[in-house]
Design a protein that fits this description.
single chain; 231 residues; mainly alpha; two-stranded antiparallel sheet; 2% strand
Length: 231
Amino acid sequence: MDPQNTENLEIENEGKQQEHEIEEEEPEDSQGQVIEEEDEVIDGTYQENGNGGQEILALEAEFRTTHDADLARRLIEIYRDADDIANLRRVRETFLEHNLLLEGREFGSKMRIIFSKEDWLQWLQDEITFAKTDEEKKAMLKLFDRALEETLCNTMNDFSKSKLFWADFDVAKLAAKYVKGLFTNGTVRKNGVTLTLNKLINHFCFDFNRGSKFFKRLRKFELEYNDNPNE
């Protein structure tokens, strides 16, 4: 073989070996520390390139077929720890869609609420934390409306009188407190508060003790800000 060709071949092989070594090098930061790859979210699931990725993929796969409440709450716990709002919303929407119906279909039978008041309160508190802009904060009022309507439907179908209208009362109190805070911060005007409080009064129109609490709040608010009609 021509010595010149042999030399060229050795140089070419050496170059390919260096390229292969470069491809296998792990990424480093400016201080030479290896950068660990983070979990990626694709179509609502984590890839298996981080701690817990395999567990999450398994839970997601089972949840997609069973819509099990315990699985939903486990995924919610994981995504809450990761501050993953997109996956939190997706799992909760699916959980709500498939588990809102009550167990027991016969009139007068004892029914169990699967998507509970506690699930709603946790969802609302999380969304309050994530809401940063005025528009996001105002949008929270729609989620409160939804929570109140759906928990009210559940309690109206629970024929145990001792629990009638009980499930959504804490949600209602949180809604009243939240909208008053929006008014104080200048996010909503006076009519936004009165609208929300009137809705709460209507929700408890058959429960004088609880309904009167929101009527008193409305009356106090109107008296306090009656001198400022443009608020």
